């Protein structure tokens, strides 16, 4: 999903996003992710926040083996793919227009013996959430999904639905505007939020959020 408006003439340094593919090495695997800016725009580009989150996962800050993971707004699928390679059972989600592209990247980069541990699924935030068991995920992942203010209520609703008090939410993002800070304040009303990592070179922060325990009714 989008993170910044893009004008190739104004921002030539971002011309790499027009490359048809991007290559990485994570979890002892060489990954080649197709990109297609012209057809799908920002949903089909590997952004820095995804790379930083993959690096964070690979360093073992989160135990992924055997855990149930869901990625939101997956785009190219890099984060979910890396989580699966590190031992998680992963549901990789995005909106319907991105699914064919996303599925192709998953098929290309997940070894046959691990494909049973990965599912690609349609999820528009705030819609059809009953298809996803409430609070049943150990880990919710999102890279550069905090940027459009009009999506904040639906994103918060989705995070709340997917999470129990034992669920960890990891959001990797670049804080650019006041609205980004506003989202973190909104998130903080439902979750305990802390910054757990900062990549200074890429100016990317990773936030960990856990549902605030609700007091039992008397």
From TrEMBL:
**Enzymatic reactions:** L-lysyl-[protein] + 3 S-adenosyl-L-methionine = N(6),N(6),N(6)-trimethyl-L-lysyl-[protein] + 3 S-adenosyl-L-homocysteine + 3 H(+)
> Which ranges form a coiled coil?
none
The record's InterPro entries line, in alphabetical order, gives:
Methyltransf_16 (IPR019410), SAM-dependent_MTases_sf (IPR029063)
Which GO-annotated molecular functions does the record name? methyltransferase activity
Domain of life here?
Answer: Eukaryota
Protein name (database record)? Protein N-lysine methyltransferase METTL21A
* Keyword annotations of the record: Cytoplasm, Membrane, Methyltransferase, S-adenosyl-L-methionine, Transferase, Transmembrane, Transmembrane helix
Q: Where in the cell is it found?
A: Cytoplasm
* GO biological process annotation, one example: methylation
GO cellular component term, pick one: cytosol
TM ranges: 40-57, 69-92
State if Kinase is listed as a keyword: no
Gene3D superfamilies tied to this protein: Vaccinia Virus protein VP39
**Family per record:** Belongs to the methyltransferase superfamily. METTL21 family.
């Amino acid at each position: 999903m989008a993170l910044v408006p893009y004008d190739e003439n104004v921002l030539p340094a971002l011309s790499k996003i027009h490359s048809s593919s991007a290559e990485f090495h994570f979890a002892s695997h060489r990954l080649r992710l197709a990109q297609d800016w012209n057809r799908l725009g920002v949903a089909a580009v590997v952004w820095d926040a995804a790379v930083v989150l993959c690096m964070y996962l690979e360093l073992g800050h989160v135990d992924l083996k055997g855990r149930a993971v869901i990625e939101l707004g997956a785009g190219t699928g890099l984060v979910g793919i890396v989580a699966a390679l590190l031992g998680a059972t992963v549901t990789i989600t995005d909106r319907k227009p991105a699914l064919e592209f996303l599925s192709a990247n998953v098929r290309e980069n997940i070894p046959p013996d691990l494909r049973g541990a990965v599912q690609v699924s349609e999820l528009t935030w705030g819609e059809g959430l009953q298809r996803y068991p409430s609070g049943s995920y150990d880990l919710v992942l999102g890279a550069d999904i905090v940027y459009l203010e009009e999506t904040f209520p639906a994103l918060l609703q989705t995070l709340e639905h997917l999470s129990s008090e034992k669920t960890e939410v990891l959001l990797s993002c670049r804080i650019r505007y006041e609205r980004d800070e506003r989202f973190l304040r909104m998130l903080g009303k439902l979750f305990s939020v802390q910054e757990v990592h900062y990549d200074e070179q890429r100016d990317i922060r990773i936030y960990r959020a856990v549902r605030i325990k609700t007091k039992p009714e008397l």
